[in-house]
Design goal:
With 150 residues, the chain is mainly α. It folds into 2 domains: 59 residues, no CATH class; 62 residues, no CATH class. The protein contains 7 helices and no strands.
Length: 150
């Protein structure tokens, strides 16, 4: 990923040198002050990368915090949907099904608002179905029926 500012390049350097915790602190606390709002999308992508590193190292709470920063700085629909999906999966892995469903539902709503169709990957609906089944919510409709059908 090509960063567009020296401030983010410094953070990337820390990240690539294995100092992802320092890079995480940098992008959440210092970089937003140094960057203009026009650079927030690059900052959001970097936050997502750092969150992923935390996640892969088993530091789930730090990962979630960093993913929330991604949502704070991004308006890119694809990055937001990917981040929501990742957050939902974390809660699913923790057996926090209510929270997971909230985030999966946010993805469904954003996709429908943007595309006015059911273009979501099957993984979202499959996981929602698994959650409802484990919660014995078998009457819950995951996919709304088309108008005029039952």
């Amino acid at each position: 990923m090509k960063e567009s500012s020296s401030e983010l390049l410094f953070g990337r350097l820390l990240f690539y040198l294995g100092e992802y915790k320092t890079a995480g602190t940098y992008v959440k606390e210092i970089a937003p002050i140094l960057l203009g709002k026009d650079k927030y999308e690059s900052l959001a992508r970097f936050c997502f990368d750092i969150g992923r590193r935390y996640y892969l190292n088993g530091e789930i709470d730090f990962a979630l915090d960093t993913y929330y920063s991604t949502l704070k700085y991004s308006t890119n629909h694809t990055l937001v949907a990917c981040t929501l999906f990742t957050i939902a999966n974390v809660y699913f892995e923790r057996n926090d099904y209510e929270r997971a469903l909230d985030y999966y539902q946010k993805i469904v709503e954003s996709e429908k608002a943007l595309y006015d169709c059911d273009s979501l990957p099957s993984a979202v609906y499959t996981t929602m179905g698994i959650i409802y089944q484990s919660m014995e919510e078998t009457t819950q409709n995951i996919i709304a029926p088309k108008p005029g059908t039952k």
